[in-house]
Amino acid sequence: MMTAITRENVLEALAGISPPGASQSIVSQGLVSEVVINGNDVMFALSADPRNVPAMETTRQAAEAAVKALPGIGKVMVALTADRPMTRSATPAQAARQARGTAVEGVSHIIAVASGKGGVGKSTTAVNIALGLAALGHRIGILDADIYGPSMPKLMGIVDKPKLASPGSKLLAPLERYGIKAMSMGFLVEEATPMIWRGPMVMGALVQMLREVAWGRLDCLVVDMPPGTGDVQLTLAQQTPLSGAIIVSTPQDLALIDARKGLNMFKKVNVPVLGIIENMSYFLCTNCGERHEIFGHGGARIEAERMGVPFLGEVPLDARLRERSDKGEPVTVCEPSSPLAAIYQSIARQIWTALATAEAAVKPPPRIVIDR
Q1: C-alpha 259: how far from chain center
Q2: Are 5 and 73 in contact (CB under 8 A)?
Q3: What's the pLDDT tens digit per position in 265-283?
Q4: Which of 26, 160, 257, 328 could anchor a disulfide with 31, C-beta 3.0 to 4.6 Å?
Q5: Backbone angles phi, psi at 258, to 5 degrees
């Protein structure tokens, strides 16, 4: 019978690994944190000085190899985490540009689907937006950035585990369904496994899922952001080259207060807000056809006008949408001719138009060459 892997096994394997020029190991220096073991898979973080990140990458690889050498080990995920200092004299706009990460190779646009609070249907909206964009003929991927509560396995109906993109590769191959590529922490751990991680570990995992996945050529990567406006959300918005953000809210004042915070967060880091979606906008009774505005109605539209951003549309509260989502059968692709799918398709068209318009605005004018 195979002996279970323990945290002590992992730390013992790492006790012989030292950063460049250091006399103490990464364990002795307290650089190893948040060791998570799921069956025979291991995940942990290494803290690094921001000025020494390139050198620490070698240490990260050595740590990964040391743990992989343990008997019975499965996948090993090592996140390198570092806080990036800002230039004191930088303006807020300059600081945002300084913090923003480099582009993801092969990905033309990255958009964030966000909400100020949980429970407003953000993940369902993100999936159907991604599928709506794919229906327009674009190459689309979706990244589930909610480490603590990943929704993508359920919403996309994906039960497989990611594999390496190729033998010897350090990149994971995204999973594919309904014509789009997907990555989620939910693909890597069991559904009931709690992710008891602090911020640095979460950020390290997100950066790896963003940059260490073989996305290939994508016209757009949709990022399903975690709810709220805390450190994780702000850092992800700063370190990811976002083409824009979409805010999802329900109509009631309590949700709109938090949606306003999310919108202002993106504005502070100079990320364009592509628009606001009002989810659970109304309910149509399946028996009598009467419309019921359970959470109020129109609040998101009013907020969009007040904040000077586009209003992308209203999505009703619909039992069919819930049933399809629970089965991993998104309504946009499984009922493409339905009124619900038409709403998401309209939202997707508006988003792509905004992205294409912004892209055209920053392109240099064509050179005019006169032959003599």
Answers
A1: 18
A2: yes
A3: 888 888 899 999 998 887 8
A4: 26
A5: -75, -35
Q: pLDDT tens across 35-60, in order?
A: 888 778 888 888 777 667 677 888 88
How far apart CA 306 and CA 91 sit, in angstroms, is 26
Quick one: three-class SS letters along the chain?
A: CCCCCCHHHHHHHHCCCCCCCCCCCCCCCCCEEEEEEECCEEEEEEECCHHHHHHHHHHHHHHHHHHHCCCCCCCEEEEEECCCCCCCCCCHHHHHHHHCCCCCCCECCEEEEECCCCCCCHHHHHHHHHHHHHHCCCCEEEEECCCCCCCHHHHHCCCCCCEECCCCCCCEECEEECCEEEEEHHHCCCCCCCCCCCHHHHHHHHHHHHHCECCCCECEEEEECCCCCCHHHHHHHHHCCCCEEEEEECCCHHHHHHHHHHHHHHHHCCCCEEEEEEEEEEEECCCCCCEECECECCHHHHHHHHHCCCEEEEEEECHHHHHHHHCCCCHHHHCCCCHHHHHHHHHHHHHHHHHHHHHHHHCCCCCCCCCC
The whole-angstrom separation of Cα 345 and Cα 336 is 9
Question: Which residue is associated with the tokens 């909400």?
Answer: 115
* Alpha carbon 238 to its chain's center: 13
Q: Quote the tokens at residue 236.
A: 């992800």
pTM above 0.85, yes or no: no
C-alpha to C-alpha distances, 107 to 229, 273, 278, nearest whole angstrom: 25, 19, 28
Q: Which long-range contacts (CB under 8 A, 24 or more apart) does 290-299 make?
A: 293/251, 295/250, 295/251, 295/252, 295/255, 296/251, 296/252, 296/253, 297/251, 298/251, 299/249, 299/251, 299/252, 299/253, 299/255, 299/256
Pairing assessment for the beta strands 41-47 and 291-292 based on DSSP bridges = unpaired
Q: What is the mean pLDDT of the chain?
A: 82
Is there a contact between 237 and 200 (Cβ–Cβ < 8 Å)?
A: no
Reported residue count of the chain is 372
